[in-house]
């Protein structure tokens, strides 16, 4: 047989798409066959534990509350006396799970970390729709470390809302089902009422409500970029004024819940400005079709826009395949991981088909056309109600999938999933071990104020450092639910500028100079060498008393640096 025929045969046997897919690009690991609940909401805490919770009103979960405790709630729509947990804390180091007690319904709620590292979770459904719940990280397995509820705390019911931390350390809560308004936690004045946000009425199609869980990002000028349905505004939340209207995303298809695409603020560095990337979703009409049993192919496009531009325009790119309900995760090296979701249908009970098992990475700085790379396949469908968050060691924790009103393990197309997996991006491959940096200073939990020079000491096993390809990144750990990670933010603090002293190297960077760039709170700091990140360390970004004095909402003063937390160790 002449060679061309062999080649032809090869392509017939291994279709082109397969040939382009690297056989082993990243690795999957099953961490837990069951954590007892399905991971609808997930947040990494500075205690290196992941807080995970579901809704409370679907009946019993597969994990009991400790010490024979039960929740008695006559308003629970499924089980007035419930002795199972609907929230757990997962510890990656010991691969163990601890059940937690939620009192009211957290279904489709929202959250943000406060500057002191406590999670502020708000809203939900039914008896929980105006609640605020706080979870402070703790060490050990102290039973005292559990949810605290304040109910009611919100001025309005918030179901499918989005939270974002603000430069002064307060939190804004935007929208929610049939709530065309926003409010703050803590409240800005005692008498303050929620303020209306007409943009949420304008983007609301009453039959489909394709603007829930709006994509909210803090722009570098201090205003909020709010994307809902198929367009966005730049919003001055202090004055309640729309500063800018962005053009409609080309194609005009909806990108928010239930047409759930996803979005990230791309890595912030000094030369590319603030850019947002919106990927996937479901076309106009897909939700109605899915309700009629027809599962329309999802969108395969991403729109990228510079949000701080005078004349912002969308640039469109095509993903390797269609995806609805994908999760977008910023990796420590600045790549974007697009993971989970389905090829057809929409978010909502029983409304999607064709799981997408292969994650895709996106390299923002590569030339157009060579930004996407298909990763290794998982064997677990992660449909509606799936989540993914970055861990300090660079792995991505993946869980959830429950497209049913209850926990249904049999007789359904996509059984309720209680597993927890880790996806290790290819940078964790042991073949890169010799160039992987290790941070030796500062120590984890160090504090850093604003515009502070920071010398990061590190070593590389091979001792061979490629000076020009060393950078320091800082990642805000986000709250993931419904295909959107609230408060996700990555800053590139500096590149190059490496010196050597003794057997270690130092890279000199400066911490961000304003709360608009990086609100106060806990961040993960990484050294990245030749695109391979170190393990992260926790950095507490705090305000000096001088700055903090002017704003009492700020809970992140350098001088009261979580003495409380350390005393519990
Ligand atoms: C790790 O790297 C080696 C060498 O480049 C490669 O053969 C292997 O497939 C990679 N494994 C994974 C899981 O990426
Ligand atoms: C959860 O509990 C149900 C009912 O006891 C059982 O059928 C199911 O196998 C359990 N699922 C897992 C993943 O443990
Ligand atoms: C149940 O709901 C009613 C009416 O909304 C409320 O008055 C009552 O306090 C609720 N009970 C509990 C235990 O939450
Ligand atoms: C963080 O702040 C919240 C809100 O003020 C408070 O309830 C919580 O106890 C604080 N957490 C820690 C660890 O100090
Ligand atoms: C799921 O389980 C519930 C309660 O066991 C049952 O009523 C419901 O019909 C099941 N749903 C499906 C889609 O099978
Ligand atoms: C990085 O480059 C500088 C100047 O070009 C040099 O002095 C230094 O030794 C280099 N560092 C390493 C680790 O190679
Ligand atoms: C680096 O040098 C210091 C002393 O200068 C020594 O204590 C340390 O073990 C060395 N580390 C490595 C990784 O060689
Ligand atoms: C490089 O480090 C020096 C201090 O050694 C500092 O003055 C300078 O600003 C740094 N340059 C960059 C680009 O970070």
TrEMBL record:
Main location: secreted
GO molecular function, one term: oxidoreductase activity
Cited Gene3D superfamilies: Galactose oxidase/kelch, beta-propeller, Immunoglobulins
InterPro entries: Gal_Oxase/kelch_b-propeller, Gal_Oxidase_central_sf, Glyoxal_oxidase_N, GO-like_E_set, Ig-like_fold, Ig_E-set
Galactose oxidase-like Early set domain location: 436-538
Keywords: Oxidoreductase, Secreted, Signal
Keyword Oxidoreductase among UniProt keywords: yes
Protein's UniProt keywords contain Acetylation: no
Subcellular location: Secreted
Assigned GO CC terms: extracellular space
Signal peptide limits: 1-19
Glyoxal oxidase N-terminal domain segment(s): 40-427
This protein's name: Aldehyde oxidase GLOX
Species the sequence originates in: Salvia divinorum
Lineage, top ranks: Eukaryota, Viridiplantae, Streptophyta, Embryophyta, Tracheophyta
């Amino acid at each position: 047989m002449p060679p061309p025929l062999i080649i032809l045969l090869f392509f017939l046997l291994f279709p082109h798409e397969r040939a382009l897919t690297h056989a082993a690009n990243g690795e999957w690991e099953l961490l837990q066959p069951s954590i007892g609940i399905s991971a609808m909401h997930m947040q990494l805490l500075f205690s290196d534990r992941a807080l995970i919770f579901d809704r409370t009103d679907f009946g019993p979960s597969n994990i009991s509350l400790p010490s024979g405790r039960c929740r008695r709630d006559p308003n629970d729509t499924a089980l007035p006396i419930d002795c199972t947990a609907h929230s757990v804390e997962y510890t990656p180091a010991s691969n163990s799970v601890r059940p937690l007690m939620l009192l009211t319904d957290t279904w489709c709620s929202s959250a943000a970390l406060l500057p002191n590292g406590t999670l502020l979770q708000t809203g939900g459904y039914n008896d929980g729709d105006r609640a605020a719940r706080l979870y402070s990280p703790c060490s050990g397995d102290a039973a005292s470390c559990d949810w605290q509820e304040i109910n009611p705390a919100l001025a309005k019911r918030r179901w499918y809302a989005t939270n974002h931390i603000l430069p002064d350390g307060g939190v804004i809560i935007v929208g929610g089902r049939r709530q065309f308004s926003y409010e703050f936690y803590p409240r800005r004045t005692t008498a303050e009422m929620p303020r209306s946000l007409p943009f949420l009425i304008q983007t609301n199609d009453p039959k489909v409500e394709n603007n829930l869980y709006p994509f909210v990002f803090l722009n570098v000028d201090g205003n909020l970029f709010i994307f809902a349905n198929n367009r966005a505004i730049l919003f001055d939340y202090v004055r309640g004024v729309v500063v800018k209207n962005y053009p409609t995303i080309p194609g005009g298809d909806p990108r928010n819940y239930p047409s759930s695409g996803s979005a990230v603020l791309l890595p912030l560095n000094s030369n590319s400005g603030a850019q947002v990337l919106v990927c996937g979703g479901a076309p106009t009409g897909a939700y109605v079709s899915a309700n009629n049993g027809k599962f329309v192919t999802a969108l395969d496009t991403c729109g990228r826009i510079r949000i701080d531009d005078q004349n912002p325009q969308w640039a469109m790119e095509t993903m390797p395949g269609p995806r609805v309900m994908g999760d977008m995760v910023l990796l420590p090296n600045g790549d974007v991981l697009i993971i989970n979701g389905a090829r057809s249908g929409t978010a909502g009970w029983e409304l999607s088909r064709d799981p997408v098992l292969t994650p895709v990475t996106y390299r923002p700085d590569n030339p157009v056309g060579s930004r996407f790379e298909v990763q290794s396949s998982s064997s677990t469908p992660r449909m509606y109600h799936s989540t993914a968050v970055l861990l300090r060691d660079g792995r991505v924790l993946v869980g959830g999938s429950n497209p049913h009103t209850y926990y249904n393990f049999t007789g359904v197309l996509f059984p309720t999933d209680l597993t927890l997996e880790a996806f290790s991006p290819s940078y964790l491959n042991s073949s890169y071990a010799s160039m992987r940096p290790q941070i030796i200073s500062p120590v984890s939990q160090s504090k850093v104020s604003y515009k502070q020079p920071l010398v990061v000491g590190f070593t590389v096993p091979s001792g061979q450092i490629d000076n020009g390809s060393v950078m320091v990144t800082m990642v805000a750990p986000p709250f993931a639910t419904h295909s959107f990670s609230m408060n996700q933010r990555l800053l590139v603090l500096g590149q190059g500028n490496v010196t050597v002293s003794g057997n270690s190297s130092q890279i000199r960077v400066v911490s961000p100079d304003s709360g608009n760039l990086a609100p106060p709170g806990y961040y993960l700091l990484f050294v990245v060498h030749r695109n391979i990140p170190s393990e992260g360390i926790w950095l507490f970004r705090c305000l000096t008393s001088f700055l903090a004095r002017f704003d009492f909402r700020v809970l992140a003063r350098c001088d009261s640096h979580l003495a409380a937390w350390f005393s519990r160790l």
